[in-house]
Amino acid sequence: MSAATDSRVGTPGMPAGVDMVRAARSRVSRRHRLLVGALVVALLGVFLVRVLLGDFTVTIPDFVRILAGEQIPGATFVVMESKLPRAVLGVLVGAAFGLGGSVFQTTLRNALASPDIIGVGMGASAAAVFAIVVLGLQGVAVSGFAIAGAVAVAVLVRTLAGAAGGYRVVVVGVGASAFLVAVVQYLFTRASIYDAQAALVWLTGSLNSASWPAIARTAGCLLVLLPVVALLAGSLRLTELGDDTAAGLGSSPRRTDALLLVAVLLVSVGVAAAGPVAFAAFLAGPIARALNGGRTSLVASALVGSILVVGADHLGAYLVPDVNLPVGVVTGALGAPFLLWLVATGRTSRRSS
Amino acid sequence: MTLTNRTTRPALAVTIALAVLAAGVVASLHVGSRMLSPEVVWAALTDPRADDADHAVVTARVARTVLALLAGGALGLAGAAMQGLTRNPLGDPGILGINAGAALGMVTAVALLGVTSLPVQIWFALAGAAVAGVLVHAIAGLGRDGATPIKLAVAGAAATAGFTSWTSALLITDLQTLETFRFWQVGTVGGRGVEVVGPVLPFLLTGAVLALTGARLLDVLALGDDLARGLGRRAGLDRLVVGLSVILLAGAATALAGPIAFVGLVAPHAARILLGPSYFRILPMSVVIGAALVTWADVVGRVILPPTEVQVGIMTAVIGVPVFFALVRRGRMGSL
Q1: Would you say residue B99 lies in a domain?
Q2: Is residue B235 a contact partner of residue B214, using CB atoms and an 8 Å limit?
């Protein structure tokens, strides 16, 4: 496609145009490569901070020796059973949320139309809590319920909002969210006070339950879903231009729906592992876009999502002494002002709608 | 509004609403996990010396009925005043984040500052409600097209999410506070006892009087800001008074029964459909419908999923969300 664009611009008599376009395009892709590189470094940094620092400091040589299988009294247990699983799950969940949220925001062309605001995350939550509290299920079955709940809510919101899309999706989703919060709250008033902490996990999101089996499940799901996103993402830049333009340029609406469905699955996989980490899906896309000079980048969104979740988990664990705040409380407290700022400045929807 | 043909018999509508309310009160005294016969209830109410299990049950039910009536009436009135003031069909203290702000104020007082007396806690709830109301409207009012209903609803949802995050953060630091506020945070009239009414009542009454005196202003505002100015209203001061009444009503109702959403949305719309667009009628009718709604929500919540009790805040969400969807889908969002 790039060759076609270049040849059209480079008409005889305007050879400078070809170079200008080429320079502009390579500047964009160079910036993107630089950004992805910087984000990978940042993620690595946050990851190491989460694993090595805190109330129990581990040196890097010790960490390498622990990974190699050496038993260091105390340190091995803390790293392998608590800190490392939390950080790894944070990376996976954050990437799933960042990617899913960015696909939603780009496809629906509205920064507010992220899965956590329009009730998809809460749908997964409500179904998972129902499975735990009422049916007494555990493990994979709970994840299955979470995924089914997210898909059901996504379909419902899309149907109720009608074809108009845009802001109406957001408001219908806000209503659906309110309803689902009520459902989760009801289910947890039936549980004992000692499960109230668990209720907060399913309402705000937390990495407290990180374990290697959960990581394996999440990683397995992501391994299946990520290639599908990569395959479908080509049409994303067309959908950004608006439904009609996209259709005119040969992007099938069905392809868009498939992409949205994969995004729902990504988010529900994240929710099944860590609860609906408030605003993680909502924040990652716009931050990545701003860093990338106003261009959508799914890779950057996923990385920003991981950095957010791992960083917020570290803040939540050590910001207030002796209190381990769930990661969702931190991202929620950070995300709400940002959401209000978006509403205030009217920067929610771009171009059409 | 094209509903004038349906408003020809307002007396009938008012009678039916009052009858539904009265039936709700009667049902609230009789219905529950322990069903009581009318004789038993009557005996418990009239005989001050009675001191058996039935008497205790009736006393508890009287308390929650009073709470339901007050909270429901206050929220219905607050919603009506808010819808009129901002000309926003989605105006509801729950949707616009005011109840969540009041809840955060109250939990801050209890968990952080160790305030144990309810009269002091109410001031924190009112302060939280005021901050939330001003914040949400100020933020939605920024930008090019001003405070559209949709922007207000989204700003309210954002504020609710943020306030709830902070409330959760405060609650999990303190298991004792969590135990106290766990059910309150969902919105419930049960288990608080009638003694919480006393300190809150002055605020409710002040708010109600201020709101009801604002009926003329709201009617004029419905014609549009320019016309209101042309008719000689000092809109600034009047708006302040009505806004204050919303804060008082919503903050006090939250202090009583927790953050209950959707009552302030449903009650005024029902009143408007029954009685037409005049706020002289909508405001008092919203009190009646709001009180009836919360009372019935409490009664139904007690028996719908035995052996557990479904909190009022959950029941009103079940009733209110379809109404919310219908209003959004109707698409004439700026039409109040």
Answers
A1: yes
A2: no
Partner-chain contact B317 A204, CB within 8 Å: no
| CB-based contact B157 A177, cutoff 8 Å | yes
Contact residues, chain A, for B134 at CB < 8 Å: none
Half-sphere exposure of A155 (CA within 13 A, CB side): 9
Cα gap A351→B336, rounded to integer Å: 29
Answer yes or no: is B318 within a domain: no
- CATH class for domain A89-345? mainly alpha
Going from N- to C-terminal start, the domains of chain A cover 89-345
Distance from CA of B154 to the nearest CA of A (A): 7
Single-letter residue type at A303: L
Q: Do B172 and A325 touch (CB under 8 A)?
A: yes
> Which chain A residues are closer than 8 Å to B178 by Cβ?
193, 196
Q: What angle do CA B327, B289, B90 make, to 5 degrees?
A: 25
Residue B334 lies in a domain: no
pLDDT tens sequence for chain B (336 residues): 444 445 457 788 888 889 999 999 988 888 887 787 887 778 777 776 666 777 778 888 888 899 999 999 999 999 999 888 877 787 888 888 888 898 899 888 888 887 777 788 888 888 999 999 888 888 877 766 666 777 777 788 888 878 887 887 787 777 777 777 777 777 888 777 778 888 889 999 999 999 988 887 788 777 776 676 676 666 667 778 888 899 999 989 988 888 888 898 889 888 888 888 888 888 999 999 999 999 999 999 888 877 778 888 888 888 888 888 887 776 554 445
Asked if B162 lies within 8 A of A179 by C-beta distance, the reply is no
Q: Which of A170, A185, A333 sits opposite B186 (nearest CB)?
A: A185
Please give the DSSP secondary-structure letter assigned to residue B114: -
Domain that holds residue B249: 4-303
How close B133 comes to chain A (CA, Å)?
A: 13
Nearest residue to A179 via CA among B165, B265, B85, B290 = B265
Q: Do A335 and B162 touch (CB under 8 A)?
A: yes
Nearest CA in chain B to A277: B165
Contact B172 A171 (CB under 8 A): no
Of the partner residues A168, A196, A344, the one whose CB lies closest to the CB of residue B328: A168
Q: With an 8 Å Cβ cutoff, are A178 and B183 in contact? A: no
* Model ipTM value: 0.72
Long-range CB pairs of A87-90 (<8 Å, 24+ gap) are A87/A47, A87/A50, A87/A51, A87/A310, A87/A313, A88/A210, A88/A215, A89/A207, A89/A210, A89/A214, A89/A215, A89/A218, A89/A273, A89/A274, A90/A50, A90/A207, A90/A210, A90/A274, A90/A306, A90/A309, A90/A310, A90/A313, A90/A327
Q: Are the CB atoms for A330 and A277 separated by under 8 Å?
A: no
Q: What is the dihedral of CA A83, A84, A90, A93, to 10 degrees?
A: -140
User: What is the rounded CA–CA span in Å between residue B118 and residue B255?
Assistant: 9
Nearest 10 degrees: Cα torsion A174, A179, A181, A182: 150
Split into its structural domains, chain B has a count of 1
In a domain, B29, yes or no: yes
Mutate to test the interface with B, among A114, A180, A185 (most CBs of B within 10 A): A185
Note whether B310 contacts A170, CB cutoff 8 Å: no
- pTM exceeds 0.90, yes or no: no
Exposed, middle or buried: residue A228 (CB in 10 Å: 0-12, 13-18, 19+)? middle
Indicate which CATH number applies to the domain containing B146.
1.10.3470.10
Which of helix, strand or coil describes residue A14? coil
Q: Please give the structure tokens belonging to residue A243.
A: 């439904």
